[in-house]
């Protein structure tokens, strides 16, 4: 992670090894979004927020069947 950004979450670096679980990804995205504009650009924050919303929706669908 250069300059505090998680490049893997931004899609700029491959995932090393095993893929994190859905809940791990959600927690990781929440933590990165909490860093805000001090670390990320507005476009990067929007990308992370979209990913977080998608993962939350996927988790909801898996838990409640759609």
Question: What key attributes describe this structure?
Answer:
66 residues; mainly alpha; 56% helix
In words, what does this structure look like?
56% of the residues lie in helices and 0% in strands. The chain is mainly alpha-helical and 66 residues long. It has a domain at 22-64. Helix 1 runs antiparallel to helix 2. The termini are far apart. 8% of the residues are buried. The mean pLDDT is 91.
**What overall form do the CA principal axes indicate?**
globular
SS-derived structural category: mainly alpha
Mean pLDDT: 91
Content of β-strand: under 5%
- Cα-atom radius of gyration: 12 Å
Low-pLDDT runs of 5+ residues are none
Q: Describe the largest sheet.
A: none
Task: Give the helix tally.
Answer: 2
The residue fraction in helices comes out at 55-70%
Intertermini distance: 35 Å
Q: What is the number of beta strands?
A: 0
> Order of helices and strands, N to C?
HH
How do you describe this structure in short?
With 66 residues, this protein is an all-alpha fold. It has helices at residues 22-35, 42-64.
């Amino acid at each position: 992670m250069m300059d505090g950004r998680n490049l893997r979450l931004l899609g700029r670096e491959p995932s090393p090894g095993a893929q994190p679980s859905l809940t791990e990804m959600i927690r990781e995205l929440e933590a990165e979004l909490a860093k805000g504009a001090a670390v990320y650009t507005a476009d990067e924050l929007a990308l992370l927020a979209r990913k977080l919303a998608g993962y939350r929706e996927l988790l909801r669908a898996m838990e409640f069947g759609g």
